[in-house]
Please model this.
Amino acid sequence: MIPRPLKSGGILALIAMAAFLVLLSCNPADNQSTFEAASPEAQKLLDLLAIIGWAAVAVFVVVEGILIYAVIRYARRRNDNTMPAQTHGNTPLEIGWTIAPAIVLAVIAVPTVIYIFDLESEPPEDSLNVIVTGHQWWWEFEYPEEDVITANELRLPVERPVRLLLRSDDVIHSFWVPKLAGKVDVIPTNENRLKFTPMETGEFYAQCAEFCGVAHSHMRFRVIVEEPEEFDAWVDNYHELASRPAPTGDSDEAQGAQLFASRGCLLCHAVNGPASAEARLALKEGFERGELRFPAPNLTNFGTRGTLAAGLLDNDPGGENLRAWLTDPDEVKEGNRMAELATVYIDPDSELTALEVSQLAAYLLSLK
Amino acid sequence: MVTLGNALSGALRRPTSYNGVWSWITTVDHKRIGILYGVTAFIFFLIAGVEALLMRTQLARPEQDVVSPEVFSQLFTMHALTMIFLAIMPLTAAFFNFMIPLMIGARDVAFPRLNALSYWIFLFGGILLNSGWIFGGSPNTGWFNYANLSEQPFNTGTGVDFYVVGLLVLGTASMAAAFNFIVTILNMRAPGMTMMRMPVFVWMTLVTSFLIILAFPVITVGLIELLFDRQFGTGFFNPALGGDPVLWQHLFWVFGHPEVYILILPAMGIISEILPTFSRKPLFGYRVVVLSGIIIGFMGWGVWSHHMFTVGLGAWSNSVFSIATMAIAIPTGIKIFNWIGTLWGGSINIKTPLLFAVGFVSLFIIGGLSGVMHASAPADAQQQDTYFVVAHIHYVLFGGSIFAIFAGLYYWWPKMTGRMMDDNLGKLHFWAMMIGFNVTFFPMHFLGLQGMPRRIHTFDSAMGWDLWNIVATVGAFFMAASILIFIHNAVRSLKKGEIATSDPWDGRTLEWSIPSPPPVYNFAQIPQVHGLDPHWSNKYGDDGHSAPVPVGGGAEEVHAANHEHADEHGDDGHGIHLPGLSYYPVMLAFGLFVAGYGLVFYETLTWAMAIIGLGIGIVAAYLWSFEPAEEDHESDD
Model:
């Protein structure tokens, strides 16, 4: 037999270890951890998780405890052949354990229903409107009042409520920024809404949460929450870039700008501010008809973005990742539409040379 | 016409051999069909397990390239489809087949040839579904196969066609089996076995069978609409044609949620048999356990939208489905409390089946509690489509169904094979599987809450998911090793296991009153039932309130008496009319199999193959209808 103090010490050590592991696992610093809330809406979800989670832990400890106790306490001893009392049931007990869970569930149901209605209530009038469109496998963000269309990086001013209208151009996706809001599906036939108010500045990781095809794992994006002045400056910079003429001359950027037009990039990617709704619809319908085109990210301010290929790689200023992406997009992000549809990737005769790739990269990185 | 039928069925001589491969192919004996179901389903279980190991290998470290994203999509789709439709459902069907007639004191199921048909359709359907791996790609859109990802122009391969046709074929097998068991249970109980004297496993089989015949038509409608969308250009789910992909989600989950109960209610039935036997006590609150099973069956229809909390159905819908989902925890909780009540005060014989049964209860509690956590729609917004739900589903379907199936296997193995399994190896299997299971799936709760979505083929190491992913992978291989212990134990038992008595566990229900393995006719004399747990009362008297004393009529005496009875008739049971062997169930199933390929490869093979297959099926059905149920008995009677 293990001495009693040692035994209880061992149990304490086990509990401490379990607690440590749980703490380790609930690390709020992790990029997509739901244990940190940067908006009141995400905080509500976290509060609800705490209420239900602790209730679940309590029920778990009590019920598993009784179960394990019963098995140990009533285990048959060797050669013990006594017949236990043949109880068939006990009505007061049965009623008791019907009512007890009902009470626990009622306690959980009340905040659940309150929060459901609360989270679906109308956002304030002065909310920032953003139309989010899910595409295979990237995100489009349109700011109708600001006349901005950008991709894979949602910029928001801090402490201003946001109202997102969620649309899909192809299949069902799900918009999820764990630290800012619970996920909402992005559906081609319904326009869903999501509201939240980011209260902390910073960069928030996010990714598609509904399986949407081969590159689903790589359909990521970032939300950048910044001071209102920074946000305004970003909008102004976008408009400046939209009206900036393409570079001319012999520079790499200028060569790249020419290649961008001559090698077919412009067929799908806009670089001069928001493309018209008709132009974007034409891309979608063209793909559905089997043509070699697909709605593609607006690249007007590509040089300002921190990531490329839908949050997949750092958009390093030296352009290393960008060149890798332009050289062989399928290697970076298997299954993506550019590798599938763009002439430069499907026609061996019009492959991009290394020089062309670096010229294109230089041009794209200059868009800032 | 009758003469034509006679002529045709005369052309194909009736199978007569009760030995060899053909005797298994043409068998209509519920016990042999049960074994066929069990062996086939176990092979599919291993295939699905290997698929899981491949996925866990891919996810062991961040940014790995063990399999491509496309293959990964096929793996998670086929893992789920295989486990659900080809492993868990048919493994429970193996127990339905083998045990239900024995537990209700019948000589076979109501429709033995239909029973054989169910098995053969299941087998061919399983092969059809899995043959996508060889013929151009398996389904790659998840087992839920959400439209419009499953449609043109987003899905151009034949994977989804294998899904549609495979599930249509498998659905017919499930439907036929469900009707068969409903009729068997309602009509073929031994005299005196009223509904409220039926073992809980029989009750749960009955409820499950009703769920099957009500749920499968819903998915069938969805599948046929999807088939039309894909092959004839209709637009049920295609937004470009004005269709609605959310309609598919409703159809799928109106089927899909009852399907969850189709997977778990038989498991609950198995547990409700094992716990009383090994505690030497009747089931605590028999009526309440049966009633809560029925209530779960009803309520299972009113909760499907909890799979769709993030679809945007509105605050009212989410509130109603949240509350309904929470409410279903009440009857589930009642069952758990009654199982603990059964153990309480018992004389618990800690053998392998009991360990697996207690393992089921302890893991199902965890799965139930995490289920309540995402019953709350707002909380679910952070859990839906993450590894938290992966953890939940495995706690209820692996910790739940699979643990219960192993409990049932260890429990009924001696009855099915006539030999005992090694208890020490069984316990080793239990502890290895218990540890491996929890090491694999408990960390997935953390991964989910740390924001790891499901169905991603890789992840970035910046996300903080590395540790628990490698832990889960190690656990998965540990669990796989535990399955090898089981296989070793099973093979060892078949070769040189201790010969089982008719009643090795001091059982309570009728199957323990006949020899192990049972003779082909099961009961030489149909038993007369006087109460719950008839075999137990035969052994110990049926005074339920004081410690009973053996009154004789124990197992050995009972079948001695049975044999005596059979001997009196001078035929050792052969005078008992049993349905004869038949070629037609396997032939009809084969016809569907051929037709299935015709539908999948409608473009290359044209519709001719579908028509040929259906032709084979129709001929088989026609000949079947003229085949007499019993063999000719010119010699005697």
